[in-house]
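Sorry to interrupt, but I need a hand with the structure work. Could you write out one complete protein record for me, on any chain you like? Could you add the entry underneath, on a fresh line?
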Amino acid sequence: MKTITMGILAHVDAGKTTLSEALLYKAGNLRNLGRVDNGDAFLDTNTLEKKRGITIFSHAAKLTTKDLDITLLDTPGHVDFASQTEETLGVLVDYAILVVSATDGVVSYTKALWRLLQRYNVPTYIFVNKTDIAGTDLKQVLADIQENLD
C-alpha cells in the first residue's frame, strides 16, 4: 500500500475543511458528512473553531482506500493563523492541494501560499471550489489562476 502525506491549503472560506471532509466521507472514512458552518465538522475539534466557524489549528486525518494510505492535513486559511499553515509545509513532502474559490479567485493570500509551496518544493494540485455557486465564471477563474500562479 502506498503511503503519502497531503495537505490542503487556501485562503479563509475557500472550502478547505469542507473538501477534506468530503474526501474522507467519499473514501468511507467518515460515516457522517460534517459542516464547518454547523459546527459539526470532524476535523475542527477545538471549541473555538466550532464557535468561530474557521480552522485555527492544523488537523490530521487518515484517508484510506484499497491501495492508498493518506495522511490528510487540513490547514487554517485565516492569515492570523498562517504560522500553523507554514509549520505544516515542513512535513508536506508528497503533495498539496491549493484550493481556489471560484467566487473569490486568486487573492493575495493564495499567492503567498503558492510562493511558500514553491519554496518548500511541494508538488501542488490546484482545486477550484465553489463552481456550483450562481454567478461564478469558471473561464475567468482559470484565467486568473494562469495569470497569477506560474
Q: What stands out?
A: The chain has a mean pLDDT of 84. Residues 108-119 form the longest helix (12 residues).
